[in-house]
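Researcher: Here's a chain I'd like modeled. Treat it as a single chain, no partners, no ligands.
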Amino acid sequence: MATDISAPSFFRISRSFTLDEIATIAAAIYRAPPAFQKESPAITGVAPLESARPGDLCFFDSLRYAAALPNCRASACFVRDVHAALLPKTVAALIVDDPSKAMTQTMTAMFSDALSPSSLFGATGVAPGAIVHPEARLETGVTVDPGAFIGPGAEIGAGTIIGAQAMIGPGVRIGRHCSIGAHVSLICTLIGDRVIIHPGARLGQDGFGYAPGARGYLKTPQLGRVIIQDDVEIGANTTIDRGAARDTIIGEGSKIDNLVQIGHNVVIGRFCAIVAQTGVAGSCEIGDFVSIGGQAAIGG
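Model: Modeled as a single isolated chain. Structure tokens:
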């Protein structure tokens, strides 16, 4: 079956924006081109330089992409002052120090529903087919999609979304305004506010702990927890083991990519960024504001 590239986008702009509004959002200086004689156009989408059309917003932050500028048809472009003269005369300049950051700020305002997993069922409240134990506690405004399981003693804060087929184990606590994606499993885990966990992530399972002996390996009980502090984001199919004798902790504001393995007893500081396919062995300690590149391996 052929892909229909003309099909509507999965994410729609919340509304159209004026260029004055966008300049305010991004703290930009707006310079209208001569082509805007009376009224500046409304911005109704975003696009790359090479494919932008009238009504679109784009950004230019490197001379590597200068070849795409002459044919740019966007209505406006975030650009540094030193590069503003390179824009076609039909494109409005939005002068900023960091065009990429300005684009992110604006896209956040325009497409807020793309920031975190939402209800795949498109509903609110507890959907038919979800299983919520009578001893679980859900605050007002929790959304639970079909097939999700919430165990006894679990607590979920207001505004949180639990995706389809997610499994929330006994006693797990999830804060307010979190997004828990489809097929996520959480056991032995405490989660703060505004946490995003993408589909397929597994938190709180056994750490890899064994005592070797003459007749093989003796399994070591894993008695700790996983603690996820506020504003953390965890990517799809990432695994975070619970601690053995102490807790595994992910610090406030840290961002973890897809397919990352974090072993038991690991402590990660605040505002770290860990890129895909990284493995962090048990009992490692990582400080604040640390960046770890893709496929890195950190020994115990």
